[in-house]
Predict the structure.
Amino acid sequence: MEGCRLCPRNCGADRSAGQTGVCKTAGENGVYAARAALHMWEEPCISGEKGSGAVFFSGCPLRCVYCQNYHIAHAESGRWISVERLSEIFLELQAKEAANINLVTPTHYTPEIIRAVEMARQQGLCIPIVYNCSGYEKVETLQTLKGIVDIYLTDFKYMDSEAAARYSRAADYPEVAKAALEEMVRQTGEAVFDDTGMMKKGVIVRHLLLPGHLKNARAVVDYVYRTYGNRVYLSLMNQYTPLPHVRDWPELNRRVTKREYERLIDHAISIGVEHGFIQEGETAEESFIPAFDGEGL
């Protein structure tokens, strides 16, 4: 945490001394988290019937302007817990029959998470660990997770650097995400599922379609499929919800149309995508955003 270089921002904040980094959090022997509970709203092979054991960490190195978890991304809510308590939470979620431990926005707490997973495994943790991230990851940080993480559930938000700069202040996002995804696939190899269809190892690449950004979405699908084929699963999402904080970006202040999403799905099918997930029905609802009220901490 001294001179922090965990994420591609490389801000150098001395987080161990209480200085906040770009991620909006400091940190010394603990993590700032907002919720730990069974979560039903991930892909079917992640949530299953009983839920994914999701731990939502506060703060975020990327902080997109349209973030659906805006309040925790800006570290406006949460509570400090020790590494020891985090390991206990993992075991408590396993006892509730969680399908996995789902680490949501974990990048800036990677060292603490590694220690917590190792401690919990010594106490009997045996379900898969899911690294649920923005895709804006440093290869060097990901390499420390080899043997810790079983499943990478990663966004791939942009192939358009101008959009990445406008909405996430990260013009380098496309190149960073490409390198990160390569490391994720290198670590996990081919996807593995159990006899009930639950993922035990592998990579799922998510893309949230933004209103008016079909060209960018197609480019993401093209890159991921043409680079990795069916070694990774694509998850194409239409659940974008325009929340009040996007008022300064009027082009984002609407939902994705049914036609926009259908055109993206048609494109994916036309180029040969077979392994993936799509969303049906009305998903753009604030009810899909959980309450970050400290449950389970």
Observations:
- The first strand starts at residue 30 and ends at 39.
- Residues 230 and 274 are 7 Å apart (CA to CA).
- The radius of gyration is 18 Å.
